Amino acid sequence: MSSVVQLIHSSALADAPYAYAAAAPPGSRLIFLAGACPLDAAGRTVAPDDYAAQAARCVETLNEALDAAGASLTDVISTRVLVASSDRADLVTAWDVVHDAFRTHEAPSTLIGVTVLGYPDQLVEIEAVAAVAA
Questions:
Q1: Fewest CB within 10 angstroms: 4, 31, 48, 74, which?
Q2: Is the pLDDT confidence value at 13 over 70?
């Protein structure tokens, strides 16, 4: 099934690896996802000290939550990627994994460096909103 999400690009804005806006048609069902965390089935944080591996696990968690809601990555209308670091290189490492997972569906996204996240040894978390046909 085709996504209802319309990604909006503008030549008036700087080139970026994401859309600056996204829209869903009237009557769409919005899905608000909790932050996807890098946890294993037992609730333990995976890959301490590895931003890329934690970002990859967050994407897996996000995919599982989307599937449970009847959606997929192409239905995501926006994301927020939180990275526990003040080092820009760490943020970019996590972003590259997330961006690669979304492939050509470049949903609007915000990349944020934060002081700390909720679980022990947690370095990355991904928040998302998706839209599907009602």
A1: 48
A2: yes
